[in-house]
Structures are given as structure tokens and as C-alpha cells.
Design brief:
Mean pLDDT: 85
Oligomer: single chain
GO molecular function, one term: branched-chain amino acid transmembrane transporter activity
Membrane topology: Multi-pass membrane protein
Strand content: under 5%
Largest sheet: 2 strands, antiparallel
Low-confidence stretches: 315-322
Strand order of the largest sheet: 1-2
Shape: globular
Radius of gyration: 20 Å
Organism: Microbaculum marinisediminis
Main location: membrane
Keywords: Cell membrane, Membrane, Transmembrane, Transmembrane helix
Length: 322
């Protein structure tokens, strides 16, 4: 692993100060703004975890809802008998295991085939969970009662977001990160130079899925009552993709730029038009893809390069800089 450069240390210190400032939010508000803050850090964690895999590979994964639901249901099933933190660890292992199985089966696919398969995964798991609860339990939903408050959940998600980001930063500077950048730019070339492309993609998909499962586990106490339609809601997958693409996936921190404005705007708009959420999501996706295909960060980089008289980075290239 390469040693951090001086400017990276400075950026890291600024990020740490920002992190400390954000962590103080519950001290000033415990109502609407704290609830909005929980939503923002939830999607920040999900989008950053999603970008760990989809950023360098350019594979659009819609399996987020599947891993999220696995984490949520792990806590819901075991909360009466096992400690919460043990359940969080189990959720990470189970989500990572499912990601490994899916990765081994599908990562040889590409394009729309991979997208369709990952979208169907969440629906398949939802139907299995619904069938099991309908036929072998007394009800479809699960109650999750803990002593955690909204403040506790906010702090846990914020810490998890930082952990995911640091993991991505470390991967970016490792041999795996180097291999993934080559795979993302040209997978055929990567295979020809001796990179085990399947192994690298599966490994990163497992890391991404495990983190997403942990997000679901941490949020289970917030829901109090969970059921398959909410835990495995495909809207979660679509929102994560839109936010990540809005911010830009060429940099690890790019999705964070998209999470904050999208969450705030979507929260306000969905409150005014609750019956038109799906239509709004579709319009948002089309707008992002056609108007800013490289995301906000990509647009800023292109504009900055033009101002300096340099060439903008090609859209197909992935630059993961924390």
C-alpha cells in the first residue's frame, strides 16, 4: 500500500473535522432535522458501499435491497435471543455470503443481464421470506424492540459511513484497487495481463454486500416493525443508484455529493406527492443519465479542466480518490 501524500493528509484532517461537526447534530435537534440526518447518513453509507463495487467496475447493481433486507431481517429474527452487535456481525456475514454466491453466478454477465439478475434477486428473497413467514410462523412481520434512539442510530450510521469510506480509500491504494481500475477500463486487457478478474470482482462485491447488510441491521430498530415489502423494497436499490450517479462514481466521495441534495429534495417532494413517488424516481433517473451522465463531480472536473486549458478525463476512466 502506498504512503499517503501530504495533500491527502490535509483532506483527511478536514474530513475528520467535518465528521465531528456532523456528529453534533443530535445535540441541537432531536426532531425533523435529526430524522432527515438519519436518512442522509443511511443513504451515504449505502451509496458509498455500492460505489465500492460499481464505481470501478461500471456494473450497475440493483441488489442493494436484497442485502439491506437480509441485514434487517437478521436483527428482526434474532433480537429476542442474541445481542444486537452479534446480530450485526451475523448480518454482515450472511450478506457477504449471498453476495459471494451471486457474484460467482453472475459476474461473468455484463450490461443489462447483470442489472436484471440483481434486480430479481431482491424480489426472489422477498418472496421466499414471505412464503416462509406465511406458512411457518404466526405472522408476516417482525417486531424489533431495543433501547436505541434515533440519536444512537444516527451515530452508528455515521461511524459506519466513515468506516466504509476508509475501507474504500485503503482498497483504492492496494493491489486490488489497481486491478479493479484496470478491469473497469478494459476487462479484456486486465485478463490478458494476468489479473484474475472474476476473483477481484467477487471479492469487492462481497465487501460491498456485507457493508450494505450492516446498514440494514443498524436500521432495523428504527423501523420497530419490519415486513418483506419494506425490508426488500426495490425503491431502495433505485434510489441508491440515482444518488450515486447524481454525485458521480469516478471518485469514492462522489456519491456523497448526490446524497444530500437528492435526499432533501425527495423528502420534500414525496411529502407533497406521496402517490407519485415511482414516477418521480423515473424522471429523476432519466434526468441524471441524460443531463449529467458523469455526475456532479464529473461535471465539475470537466469544467475545471476546460478553465485550465487541459483535457477532461474520459468518461470511461475511473479515478478513485478519497
Amino acid at each position: 500500500m502506498n504512503r499517503p501524500e501530504p495533500h491527502e493528509i490535509g483532506v483527511g484532517l478536514l474530513a475528520a473535522l467535518a465528521f465531528a461537526g456532523i456528529a453534533c447534530l443530535p445535540l441541537f435537534d432531536d426532531g425533523y432535522y435529526l430524522s432527515l440526518g438519519v436518512n442522509i447518513v443511511m443513504y451515504a453509507a449505502l451509496c458509498t458501499a455500492w460505489t465500492l463495487f460499481s464505481g470501478p467496475t461500471h456494473y450497475i447493481s440493483l441488489a442493494t435491497a436484497a442485502f439491506f433486507g437480509i441485514g434487517t431481517y437478521t436483527v428482526g429474527i434474532g433480537i429476542d435471543t442474541l445481542p444486537f452487535w452479534l446480530l450485526v456481525a451475523i448480518a454482515a456475514v450472511l450478506s457477504g455470503f449471498v453476495a459471494a454466491l451471486v457474484g460467482l453466478a453472475t459476474l461473468r454477465l455484463s450490461g443489462v443481464y447483470f442489472v436484471i439478475f440483481t434486480l430479481g434477486l431482491a424480489e426472489l428473497i422477498r418472496q421466499i421470506v414471505t412464503w416462509v413467514q406465511t406458512n411457518f410462523t404466526t405472522g408476516i412481520g417482525l417486531y424489533v424492540f431495543t433501547d436505541f434512539t434515533e440519536t444512537h442510530i444516527f451515530w452508528m450510521l455515521l461511524a459506519l459511513t466513515a468506516a466504509i469510506f476508509l475501507t474504500g480509500w485503503a482498497i483504492n491504494r492496494s493491489r486490488l484497487g489497481f486491478a479493479m481500475r484496470i478491469i473497469g477500463n478494459d476487462e479484456t486487457v486486465a485478463a490478458h495481463v494476468g489479473i484474475d478478474t472474476a476473483r477481484a470482482k467477487v471479492l469487492l462485491f462481497v465487501v460491498s454486500g456485507a457493508f450494505i447488510g450492516v446498514v440494514g441491521a443498524i436500521l432495523a430498530p428504527r423501523f420497530a416493525y419490519i415486513e418483506p415489502p419494506s425490508a426488500f423494497n426495490p425503491m431502495i436499490s433505485f434510489q441508491v443508484v440515482i444518488m450515486a450517479l447524481l454525485g458521480g462514481t469516478r471518485r469514492l466521495w462522489g456519491p456523497l455529493v448526490g446524497v444530500i441534495p437528492f435526499t432533501i429534495v425527495f423528502d420534500a417532494v414525496s411529502a407533497q406527492f406521496p402517490n407519485h413517488t415511482s414516477i418521480l424516481m423515473g424522471l429523476a433517473f432519466l434526468a441524471v443519465v441524460y443531463l449529467i451522465p458523469n455526475g456532479i463531480t464529473g461535471w465539475i472536473e470537466t469544467a475545471y479542466a476546460r478553465l485550465r486549458g487541459g483535457a477532461a478525463q474520459p468518461a470511461g476512466k475511473t479515478r478513485w480518490i478519497a
